[in-house]
Amino acid sequence: MSEQLRQPRLAELIASRLRSEILSGRLGEGDSLPRQEDLLAQFQVGLPSVREAMRILETEGLVSVRRGTVGGAIVHLPTASRTAYMLSLVLQARQSTLADTGAALSRLEPICAGMCAARPDREQAVLPELWVLLEEQRGLLNDVVAFNRASRTFHERIVELCANDTMILVVGALESIWSAHEVETYEHAAPAAEPGAGAMKAAFGDHRALLRAIESGDEEKAASCARTHLQAAQAYTLSRSDALTEITAELVREGSSRPLRLG
Known about the structure:
Elements: H1 10-23, H2 36-43, H3 47-59, E1 63-66, E2 72-75, H4 80-93, H5 98-118, H6 122-125, H7 127-138, H8 144-160, H9 165-187, H10 197-216, H11 219-238
Antiparallel strand pairs: 1-2
Helix pairs in contact: 1-3, 4-9, 5-8, 5-9, 5-10, 5-11, 7-8, 7-10, 8-9, 8-10, 10-11
């Protein structure tokens, strides 16, 4: 059935209809949008309006348009990783510092740690995975790059296991930004600038204390452990002579770091 659109800004209206199809789940990841000819017939509009609608959706990251003989538009669902990248673009444009992001994270991540401790199903849904991640860190205390990556995964999962999608997206975006920059710092560090075994053992001990607080269901203690650890760890990283200081969005692009996971 065709739909005659007579309102102004036809491209925005077409984009809105197609956006609703994507966000409602009627179109899924990797699906193809209707052919250009079908869209022209459906909306009874000219080719420029359809092409502009595709540009709008492409800018939003909801479709990728293939041009040429195998052309068409492929659907992409919104992801948490893209949220982190868009936030990093805004922060870079505002010339925000990594210390600024760290300060926000050191206040928000402890809330997620407390929420993990408050979960009635923490023994089944939270702790088994986190204890495994902690044990991985134990075996990496002599490898600064591998230990740092394992440590960042541990922190990211603390956020992702808090069981609140909004916190996972908001705090997880900051976590991804900090992780990408910290990993970049340590993976390009000169050997003389690498943290000693003592610093890594201290971080490992902090993580273990945090897990014990979560295990006991002590929300306030879990938040306190996380806050104390984050402040010390961030201060250590930011004090390094080779530390990154400005936000660089390119480091946060999807594929550059571990994607955020909801739930």
